Amino acid sequence: DQQVKQNSPSLSVQEGRISILNCDYTNSMFDYFLWYKKYPAEGPTFLISISSIKDKNEDGRFTVFLNKSAKHLSLHIVPSQPGDSAVYFCAASDTFLMLTFGGGTRLMVKP
Amino acid sequence: DAGITQSPRHKVTETGTPVTLRCHQTENHRYMYWYRQDPGHGLRLIHYSYGVKDTDKGEVSDGYSVSRSKTEDFLLTLESATSSQTSVYFCALRGAGGTGELFFGEGSRLTVL
User: Class of the A4-110 domain?
Assistant: First the structure.
């Protein structure tokens, strides 16, 4: 049973518009959440994170929102750019020892 | 760049043969991980290490073994490869900060025929 789920395998967005990627989790012990970005033939790279004591964290065009009661987090990218086209993984941790990843969402930003 | 090198980057092998993937780091990180990436499953943890000769199983450890005889090298071995082990394998290090952030290598694509 997947503890971290990304229910949308793909998302297509027009350049300049907002991209919203969603992630749900089931383990209430998770207290740290991360988003990774992956280009083809490369390893995932860290994008942004949020602690469970916060409900929002911003870094430039990227904002992560956390709704603990709903066990839901989302990544907003504004404005979306063609270079943002990649696979995005959300991940969660309860011990800082291991990360549990979702299945990924492929984002396509069209010019 | 966290100084992670995976080898080989690509390998094709036959069912039943042994395969070893190597992860090498240059920055003396304590924690190292092996993940596999498969469509629809994201990244799943195979094994991890928290020090020399200290390893533990992850979510999908069956059919895999690991060894860490020195800090810089973490080896993943498939004793007898099966077609279900066709995947992309990523090594990762845990960063020095206490946030759980992982730094990944570029991956090793393994095809088992």
Answer: mainly beta
